[in-house]
Amino acid sequence: MSPLVPSHEIATAARLLRDGGLVAFPTETVYGLGADATNDQAVAAIFETKGRPRFNPLIIHLPTANEARSFGEFDDRAERLAALFWPGPLSLVLPRPPHSPVSLLASAGLDSLALRVPDHPLAVKLLKETGRPVAAPSANRSGRVSPTTAEHVREELGERLAAILDGGPCRVGLESTVLDLTGPVAAILRHGGVTRSAIEAAIGPVMEALEDDNAPRSPGMLSSHYAPSLTIRLNAENVRPGEALLAFGDNPPSGFADIRWLSRASDLREAAANLFALLRSLDRPEFSGIAVMPIPETGLGAAINDRLRRAAAPRG
Ligand code: AMP
Ligand code: MG
């Protein structure tokens, strides 16, 4: 274990994570901004803290491959890659098992999860002691470079975090390779610490489907992306027959067939935490559509509105 961090600090950090706090920790790639992946509000706090205008799916960290197995559906390819490259800088995108305890917000509403076992003693110890899957993007503000020292994290996010574990500089300093195994042909979504040729040596040809922050991935690649089947109507201020209402604030219009609150207290973090689960729960054939009350465009509201606008966009 790293000599820089005494074990009681790890125990404290693990407790803070279980209590819903954000803890930055070192991995071999970059420093991660960790939250209990089963806690919707803690995951919402990650997006709030990073200041990202969009929800992107997060990588879920586990201490061992054995523990990772309960959070994704492993096929032969996944087993082979896990045996070869874990612990290490490879994230596997796998189908999410039914009844997964992981927050839907952590995978931005997708039916898949990206799983990784980091190769860093401090990270592994923290994950073991926490006893929960930990969602962790890089510990930087949106648009800034990924941090490779605890000092970078402190400068950028210091006062917003419950704890920062200092493990010294990161060894790899480059993000993990993200490999999508939800389809018949494996697809590299992001290049990183494990090379394409090393992956192909293990499982045969893979394709590249690199993510572009400014363009949604092609529909085929988004096959596992959840899109509501009902029509979504934004900025609703009145009722249409048979609609269900996704409400925000304590003064919703009346007369809807059903109503669920993103947040009664107009709390954007609570609304983000509830968003994906509520969209799914209202997406039922007995309603004619889902009306959504106006959500302010500030803070997490920007990411909530981005997701709602895409859910409301006409589909081909
Ligand atoms: P970061 O949070 O900076 O480590 O980046 C995580 C990367 O993994 C991003 O490129 C995400 O889009 C990708 N990712 C995480 N989960 C999924 C998923 N379920 N499906 C597709 N890509 C994912
Ligand atoms: Mg990042």
Structure, described:
The strands form two sheets. The protein has a ten-stranded mixed beta sheet, sandwiched between helices. It has a four-stranded parallel beta sheet with strand order 11-14-12-13. The chain is built from nine helices and 14 strands. The chain has two domains: 202 residues, DHBP synthase, CATH 3.90.870.10; 81 residues, no CATH class. The protein is α/β, with parallel strands linked by helices. The protein starts with 6 loop residues before the first helix and ends with a helix. Helix 2 crosses helix 8. 28% of the residues lie in helices and 17% in strands. The site of adenosine monophosphate has 19 residues, from strand 4, strand 5, strand 8 and strand 9.
Key attributes of the depicted protein:
alpha/beta; DHBP synthase; binds magnesium ion; 316 residues
